[in-house]
Amino acid sequence: MAETKTPGFAISDKKHTRSDDFGGDNILSAKKQMLSAASTWDDPAATLAAARHEFGEHGGVNMSIEASATFTVMEPETLSRMFTGELGPDRDFFIYSRHFNPTVLNLSRQMAALEGTEAAYCTSSGMAAISSVLLQLVSSGGHIVASTVLYGGTHALLTHFLPRACNIKTTFVDMSDLESVRNAIVQGRTKVLYFESISNPTLRVANIPELSRIAHEKGVKVVVDNTFAPMVVSPARLGADVVIHSISKFISGGADIIAGAVCGPASLVNSMMDLHQGTLMLLGPTMNPKIAFELSERIPHLSLRMKEHCHRALVFATRMKKLGLKVIYPGLEDHPHHTLLKSFANKEYGYGGLLCVDMETEERANRLMHHLQNSTQFGFMAVSLGYYETLMSCSGSSTSSEMNDEEKAMARISPGLVRMSVGYLGTLEQRWSQLEKAISRMQDSGSFNKY
Question: Which residues carry this modification: N6-(pyridoxal phosphate)lysine (predicted)?
Answer without folding.
Answer: 249
